[in-house]
Write a structure and sequence with these properties.
Structural class: alpha/beta
Strand order of the largest sheet: 6-5-13-11-12-10-9
Shape: globular
Helix content: 25-40%
Number of strands: 21
Radius of gyration: 27 Å
């Protein structure tokens, strides 16, 4: 009696093991519900002959595409959530009250791996350059941070995760920006003060829901559309609908339909996309409406998706840009009335990864009391502009760094972003304490110049630089 049972068990086990491969071979293709690109099918032979990476690349492809993958992932994570209150997925944290959180927000939540005071100061200096550039063109400038979900709902994080005492990156940066006179909107304080109105973030998604987005929208409009009448939607009462899934849900339960509650205000959008715009694919696109004559350029990330129908319906012109580093050459030729930056909290550190593409303003050269060592420069073209990046050796990081270009009585001085670009890494290898800088030159400068870098009253000779046009 036992032998038939064993044979049946072995046959069932083999069938389960072979089913994913068989389904793949017969053309099974699951829908990609995860917020990431799946690995592509690789080839054993490439342009240069045998592809030695084929085993690793094929393994990655198979892991993303094997038959019934979503069902198996869902069954596994559903079981671990029921038994252990966790998913064993490195990207997802199971919180209280059915909330899921993104693991990449843990550093901010726990207050670990914080930005240094010097890094905070440099971010403030960078945003100060951007605000000054906008002000010189009559454009209002505002910076904002879209808070991580656990910043607004710390009470729903697992009890085992205990934040450190003291201010985090967001609070410290806002304090530095206030001291520097940089205009901001504090979404975190706004959202936390309205938690009694109803839930502001999706249960199983990283982003704010429609209620949270409405609060953010009104704060933006108060900042950029002062004096203009606009719809606040304050009189609307949302209907609760049960169709919500979300990016975190799709990481761990991709085969299950969303059935979480969300507020639906029934707001009908009324705007037009620019001809040829593909909002789902394009990093930059625009919208127009007949609402008023106010124009906005919004540098945004995925939190801006929920703002799009609200802003586009209630502003005459909006241009959205998800390109990073921020590209100010994308602004409409007539210049918008306002530039607004929306950046998710977990990505604050990215502000020091690369400098914006922004033609530098002429500045008065600060007095240099001492001679330093040598500054090293490299140049490259981007979008028709010439960019300079480099570094110099100094004990202390300067917040304000200037590049001086001299030729036959001609003098140009520009404030550079205090950022060590990846392009200058090879230059920095020769230095003990490299301090980086980067800027985009305005159009019209070309030919040979003597260059110097001015920082904290010290002049660093950068030698001769031959400027090309873009």
């Amino acid at each position: 009696m036992k032998k038939p049972f064993y044979l049946a068990f072995i046959a069932a086990f083999l069938a389960v093991c072979l089913l994913p491969t068989a389904a793949l071979l017969f053309g099974y293709e699951a829908e990609n519900r995860e917020n990431r690109p799946l690995a592509r099918l690789t080839s054993l032979w490439g342009r240069d002959g045998l592809n030695l990476s084929f085993p690793v690349e094929f393994d990655a492809y198979f892991e993303d595409h094997f038959g019934f993958r979503e069902e198996m992932v869902t069954a596994f994570h559903g079981l671990t959530m029921a038994l252990f209150g966790d998913t064993l997925n490195e990207k997802v944290i199971v919180g209280k009250n059915d909330m899921l959180f993104y693991s990449e927000t843990l550093d901010d939540y726990l207050g670990r791996n914080l930005l240094s005071e010097e890094e905070i100061a440099r971010i403030a200096a960078c945003l100060g350059i951007e605000q000054a550039w906008c002000k010189a063109r009559g454009i209002s400038f505002t910076f904002s941070i879209a808070p991580n979900k656990n910043t607004v709902y710390p009470e729903n994080m697992p009890s085992r995760l205990v934040p450190a005492a003291g201010a985090g990156n967001r609070e410290r940066l806002y304090a530095a920006l206030a001291e520097a006179g940089i205009e901001t909107v504090d979404f975190a304080s706004l959202l936390c003060s309205h938690k009694q109105d109803g839930q502001l973030y999706h249960d199983r998604d990283t982003h704010w829901n429609e209620r949270g987005a409405l609060l953010a929208y009104n704060a933006i409009m108060q900042r950029i559309a002062a004096g203009e009448a606009y719809e606040s939607y304050a009189s609307l009462v949302p209907e609760t609908v049960y169709d919500d899934a979300g990016d975190l849900h799709n990481f761990v339960l991709p085969a299950l339909p969303g059935n979480r509650p969300r507020p639906d205000y029934g707001i009908e959008p009324d705007f037009a996309y620019d001809e040829g715009a593909r909002p789902a694919q394009d990093t930059t696109f625009g919208t127009t409406s007949s609402a008023n004559g106010v124009s906005l350029h919004l540098f945004r990330d995925s939190f801006g998706n929920a703002l799009l129908p609200l802003l586009s319906t209630n502003l005459g012109r909006v241009k959205y840009s998800a390109e990073f580093p921020y590209n100010y050459t994308l602004l409409d030729e007539g210049t918008p009335d306002a530039v607004f930056i929306e950046l998710v909290e977990r990505n604050m550190k990215n502000l020091l990864s690369a400098a914006p593409l922004m033609p530098a303003l002429e500045a008065d050269a600060p007095h240099a009391k001492a001679e330093g060592g040598t500054a090293l420069l490299t140049q490259y073209g981007r979008s028709g502009y010439t960019q300079l990046a480099g570094c110099f050796d100094a004990d202390v990081q300067a917040r304000h760094i200037y590049v001086l270009l001299l030729r036959d009585g001609e003098s140009h001085c520009f404030e550079a972003f205090p950022i060590l670009e990846e392009r200058a890494d090879s230059l920095a290898e020769t230095m003990v304490s490299p301090r980086g800088f980067s800027l985009t030159l305005p159009e019209g400068l070309s030919g040979e110049y003597e260059a110097a870098v001015l920082a904290d009253g010290v002049r660093y000779d950068a030698g001769t630089v031959l400027l090309a046009n873009g």
